[in-house]
Amino acid sequence: MNIDTILVKVASRCNINCTYCYVYNMGDDGWQDMPALMSSSTIQALSSSLTELASAQSRPFATVLHGGEPLMLGARRLEYLLGALRAVLPETHVICMQTNGMLLTPEVVEICAKFRVGVSISLDGPKAVNDRFRLGKHGESTHDRVVAGIKLLRDHPMSGVLYAGLLSVIDPFSDPAEVYEYFKGLSAPSVDFLYRDGNHSNLPFGKNAFESVEYGRWLSRLLDVYLADPLPPRIRFLDDIIKLCLGGRGIKEGLGDADYGIAIIETDGSVSKNDTLKSSFNGADRFVENWSVHHDRLSEIFASTEFAQYHALQRPTSKDCKNCKLEGVCGGGMPLHRWKVGSEFDNPSVYCNDQKELISNVIDRLKREGLQLDPRLR
């Protein structure tokens, strides 16, 4: 199989304390066993492993620096890491970073520019919305420092490369139009809106029941604002649903039937599953095999039976999903949202009804525009 994204946990700790964080606040304790930062020896092993993978597989992949908070590496070690990666990977190889933006400085931005690294910032909306959940270690606001970091990216001569966009976790009690307009005011080139982590045994924040559609209504209101805007930023989640309803293909994991390969490299060099699975149960992201870039070839790991079983989690197994005409668009959602004690991942997404609400509204809008739907939806 091919891998699309290698997500590298360059730091296992974070400098803020988001109350909804799946790493630190949803019961998993794996981060406690990891080095705080990726060492120089692991960086070298990682570089060699990614070189081998780039040669072995048939299509390119992206490398995403993640955490914890990746900028806890500090400027010097970040430059060392990026230099090691750029020295061995093709010039066209995509390297990007997901950060809370609190530690962005002119020096760090220049390092990212030097190595052509796209930076995505986590921000949930205006100050009142963001600071409801994204707080400092002592409960203090994070908003202003994040916006200051965004300004550094936006004002840089290479902003087109550096400022990749925003990642926003949905607060169903917020006003989607207000959040949308706020992000436009920050000149966000794209916004990736995310469902809150949760499952059938631990319902997501703001969701009253499996049958309720709080998130579906929020996203449907966002859709109205988005489609009315003649110059919108990209919203990948909505774009993918629209394309899939028209018979095209999406690019986002958890939608459609796209085969999306993702693997995680921890700060000690070990290989794990998609880290969002941590929210299901303690250790849900760990393989039985103790794979590591220090002693295993990535191409052989990704060709193994155990990795194939993990990859197969992307496809829903629930009869409800298999018998649903919207499955080709919905895709069954993210595996973590299907978890339930007892039946494990053999369930529709906890957001099943929210997805139906949103997709039905997309279909209605497309019909009103006279566009031709995927035959499966007619």
Fold and architecture overview:
The protein has 14 helices and 9 strands. With 378 residues, the chain is of the alpha/beta class. The protein has a single domain (5-313), classed as TIM Barrel, CATH 3.20.20. The protein has a 9-stranded mixed β-sheet with strand order 7-6-5-4-3-2-1-8-9. The longest helix has 17 residues, at 40-56. The chain is globular, with a radius of gyration of 20 Å. The relative contact order is 0.14. Residues 1-249 form the Radical SAM core domain. InterPro entries: Aldolase_TIM (IPR013785), MoaA_NifB_PqqE_Fe-S-bd_CS (IPR000385), rSAM (IPR007197), rSAM_sf (IPR058240), Sulphatase_maturase_rSAM (IPR023867).
Number of domains: 1
- Judged by helices, strands and strand pairing, the structural class is alpha/beta
Q: Tally the helices.
A: 14
User: What is the helical fraction, as a range of percent?
Assistant: 25-40%
- Tell me about the largest β-sheet: 9 strands, mixed
Radius of gyration: 20 Å
**H/E topology pattern:** EHEHEHEHHHEHEHEHEEHHHHH
Task: Give me the CATH fold name.
Answer: TIM Barrel
Give the beta-strand count. 9
CATH superfamily: Aldolase class I
Estimate what percentage of residues fall within beta strands: 5-15%
**According to CATH, what is the class?**
Alpha Beta
Organism: Roseateles oligotrophus
Keywords: 4Fe-4S, Iron, Iron-sulfur, Metal-binding, S-adenosyl-L-methionine
Domain Radical SAM core: 1-249
Cofactor: [4Fe-4S] cluster
